[in-house]
């Protein structure tokens, strides 16, 4: 069983389909490269760099235009006060985004 199925008790169905969006990527995943070392750097700085890279790569003003839900897996060594596994937004215009530390 895949880790994501265990986490949500198979109630969340993830799909590779982007039929409601102009972006069409068969796997539903992509990799971006940022020109910054993440070791010891704040997750907010790295998160913003990833957002900028996605916007540039797909010529959009926000990754929310690519999919209803977007997950960032930030590189190892990214810093967040108190340590971290991941977080998601529930309000404030970023409801589409969840952010995870490395392989979590």
Quick recap:
Helices cover 20% and strands 12% of the residues.
Order of strands in the sheet with most strands:
1-3-2
> How large a portion of the residues is in β-strands, by DSSP E?
5-15%
Query: In angstroms, what separates the terminal alpha carbons?
Result: 16 Å
Q: Which shape, going by the Cα principal axes?
A: globular
Gyration radius (Cα, Å) is 14 Å
Overview of this structure, please?
There is one protein chain. The chain is α+β, with helices and mostly antiparallel strands. The protein has a domain at 36-104. The protein contains 2 helices and 3 strands; from the N terminus they run ααβββ. A 3-stranded mixed sheet has the order 1-3-2, with helices on one face. β2 and β3 form a beta hairpin.
What are the SSEs and their pairings?
Blueprint: H1 3-7, H2 43-58, E1 70-74, E2 86-88, E3 97-101
Parallel strand pairs: 1-3
Antiparallel strand pairs: 2-3
